[in-house]
Amino acid sequence: MSLSGIRVVDLTRVLSGPFCTALLADMGADVIKVEAPGEGDQVRGQGYLKDGYSWYFANFNRNKRSIALDLYSPEGRAVLERLIATADVVVDNFRPGVMDKMGFSRERLEAIRPGIVAASVNGFGATGPYADRPAFDFIAQAMSGFMSLNGRAGDPPLRAGPPVSDMVAGLYGALGIVAALVGRERTGRGEALDVSLLGGLVSFLGFHATNYFASGAAPPRTGNDHPIAAPYGLFATADGEVAIAPSSDVFYERLMRALGLDEALADPRFATNDLRVANRAAINGVIEGATRARPSAHWIEVLNRAGVPCGPVLGVEEVFEDPQVRHQGLAVTYDQPGGGEVTVLRLPVDFSRGPFRIRRPAPGLGEHTDEILAELGLSPARE
């Protein structure tokens, strides 16, 4: 695997940090998860517990090893120092300053292990007026502007269902770590990096932000309609709805011809995208006049054959029965000690030289403590 031979000391818990380190583990890194004795990562007891086991925990901690250390004790911190001395990367998602108070400032980490990559995933960044504030995904969605863009015009702001700020921060953290490792290969120097939930979501505002920069106007909520393209969104059919996204004049023409609406192509109200946006209700009504006549499956077949981007609106329970999702193997089932057969989401990156696999099940709390201590030349942990 791409990161084989890279050791990561994982001081993270819950989601943003564990997702970051799970990506590294999936790509071959030896990720050692440091957990508090007796309790461990709180996610071990969260989510739906099937036969007493958290599949939520399994999803974000497969391919890792676990060592139980009391970092409030001098002995625990001494072991951590020994562990860091063997590592390439240290990742934490404590509030800024916590690592310093524990005696593991960036400078200290570099002294322990010259060339180390130190990464921190936090709520608002390492500096600034909000650096010390606690943060969760919901707060990051609210404060990043992300929530303000979800929902329909006239409705209150709406959170995205998945914990997007945690996932985005985890992705950026893994990306930054891999870039720092490449840089170290070239220069021999380590790197320190910070990633925040807030910063990650702000960066995902995309064209909403650039349109605001250019116009000075706050972007409105448009529900399933695209704010700068029409027609675009969900359209009623005889038995449900279909998602259609003709984002250019070429796709628009294909759509109208496939629907048998050639005459609408000559309507001056719909001659350009800007006019169609201005007359969105009218063009949507014309299209739904056609789509309501046949079921969704019919239009998905017809429009895809015509080269128009479209698809069904699937619930989570339907996604994993979809033939393309099944073909891609985006869900993986493996044997988890203590949990039986567990299904998790796989790394959605396909490497030609090494396909994704579960090398290790999610670890039990402290499962590898003695093993890791032995690697450090230390005696087994006392009961």
Description of the molecule:
- It holds the Pfam family CoA_transf_3.
- The structure is a single chain.
- The protein is α/β, with parallel strands linked by helices and 383 residues long.
- It has 2 domains: 7-204 and 326-375, Crotonobetainyl-coa:carnitine coa-transferase, domain 1 (Rossmann fold); 233-317, formyl-coa transferase, domain 3, CATH 3.30.1540.
- Helices cover 37% and strands 15% of the residues.
- The protein has 16 helices and 13 strands.
- The protein has helices at residues 16-26, 55-61, 74-84, 98-101, 106-112, 137-143, 164-187, 197-203, 207-215, 249-258, 273-278, 280-291, 296-305, 316-319, 323-328, 369-375; strands at 7-11, 30-35, 49-50, 53-54, 64-68, 89-92, 117-122, 191-196, 233-236, 241-244, 310-312, 331-336, 340-345.
- Helix 1 (16-26) crosses helix 7 (164-187) and helix 7 (164-187) packs across helix 8.
- The protein is elongated and about 80 Å long.
- The chain starts with 6 loop residues before the first strand and ends in an 8-residue tail after the last helix.
